[in-house]
Amino acid sequence: MRGTSYAYAGTRLPVLADIDLDVEEGRVLAVVGPNEAGKSTLCLVAAGLAPASIGGRLTGSVVIDGDETLALKPHEAAQRCGILFQNPATQLSGTTATVWEEIAFGPRNLGLAVDEVVERVAGAMATLRIDSLAERDPNRLSGGQAQLVALASVMALRPSTLVLDEPTSQLDPSGTRLVGDALSRFAAETGTAVLIVEHKTGLVARIADEVAVLVAGRIVQRGPSSDVLGDPVLEDHGVDPPPAVRVGRAVAAAGRAADLVGLDLAALESEPTG
Amino acid sequence: MLINTFLFPGAIDVIVRIGPLAPTWTGLGAALQATLRVAAFALSVAVFALTTPTDQLLADLERRGLGRRGVFVIGAAIGMIPRIAERASEITDSQRARGLDTEGSRWRRIRGVVPLAGPMIVSALSDVEERTMALEARAFSAPKPRTILRTLPDSAAQRTVRWIAGIGAIVLVGASIAGLVPLP
Q1: pLDDT tens by residue, A33-58
Q2: SS3 assignment, position B132
Q3: Which residues contact A57 (CB under 8 A, 6 or more apart)?
Q4: Residue-range definition of the domain harbouring residue B61
Q5: From A117, which residue of chain B is nearest by alpha-carbon distance?
């Protein structure tokens, strides 16, 4: 994204203003920020759904694999950039009887040969380690499982970029861990560029290489994950630091830094907070 | 059934007189006919629903050339029923937790419908945009025909029965119109 601004249809004020962001292959860029910062809108713009599907006014440049999203049709954008929303229930087609068929929904839409559909579904399920769910009814899964199925459904389109809009916001800690682990593995194994918007900074600390802070539609800070998440300014922007950082500060404030010796702070990140 | 049997207008062929009640043969015939019609209609729907899994119905419709939008609309409409029931139950529970009386007299239950229907409709509509975008993100609008994954078995016997049933229905209707078979 270069100098990207976006305003919804019927509004004058842009929700996003002058955004510069890029994600490299195999890297995970997390975007954090307070409510109403424009994070979900950023996802829609990055994935090419705004303005193509929902209208609005886009200025600047959004490029996926060398092509401007404005020049792409929705199904073409879908093959370059997958997007996952907050609620797994709204992402499943609701017309399939098994998880396997649900994941095949996207590849079938592309009219691929049967062998290729089968191979893509198997690949997506293997990457996320959800083979055991193949014959399950997609409408009878736990939140974490349903989100993994939704992720596999997007992955089966083999996009080079993946955009995730708070994929764990409706999940409990175990579901969050399930999805977080799968995402880390997925980005590393497939070389997919991942842009994730997430409130749970504990999860962000675990999976993101870089973090950008979005406030009132503008990127106000960007850098390596540990630098940004450990910066005291983060709280001024309305973002809670990860549990490990909070514990570290609390202990330091109590003047008992020596107590941290031998304590695995990274382990705290595996228990994301809401 | 009772109304036709006991109160058929103009019928005088009384079966038996029980005080003020006088069921008639004409009324009983009309009642049986009406009952059979309703039962035939309900049975056809029930047999279809009980013997045809939704996914197989959709797969076959797609194989026969129904477009992806048509297939999706039918599938989503069928799949929506349990989801709506589930959501209605959640909203009922949450409204009840806030003190709404959803039980008791009929009038109370009727009054309780309004605070349930509002959130139901709003939540269903709020999902539509996200569902639409999720479909777009899965290449739903791609121009090529969808991949057909499975072809359901269709034996010669099944095809023969279908042809006989179809032709039989047409012949019966034709014969009835021509006055050859007095269908009710």
Answers
A1: 999 899 999 999 999 888 888 889 99
A2: helix
A3: A6, A7, A9, A14, A51
A4: 54-136
A5: B147
CB contacts under 8 A, A 58-87 vs B, are 73-75, 78-79, 82-83, 85, 87
pTM of the model: 0.76
CB contact under 8 A, B138 and A111: no
Q: Are B127 and B110 within one domain?
A: yes
Inform me whether the pLDDT recorded for A145 exceeds 50. yes
Subunit contact B55:A97, Cβ cutoff 8 A: yes
The pLDDT-based confidence of B75 (bands split at 50, 70, 90) is confident
CB-closest option in B53, B79, B149 to A104: B149
pLDDT value of position A268: 58
Domain membership flag for residue B103? yes
pLDDT of residue A274: 39
pLDDT in tens, A105-125: 999 999 999 999 999 999 999
Identity (one letter) of the amino acid at A172? D
User: Given pLDDT bands bounded at 50, 70 and 90, which one contains residue B161?
Assistant: very high
| Nearest-neighbour CA in chain A from B164: distance (Å) | 32
Find chain A residues with C-beta within 8 A of B68's C-beta.
109
B58 and B128, same domain (yes or no): yes
Q: What is the pLDDT of residue B112?
A: 72
Class of domain A2-268: alpha beta
Compute the average pLDDT of residues A223-229: 92
Nearest to A62 by CA among A26, A108, A16, A125: A16
B46 and B87 part of one domain: no
CB contact under 8 A, B138 and A105: yes
Indicate the DSSP class of residue B144. S
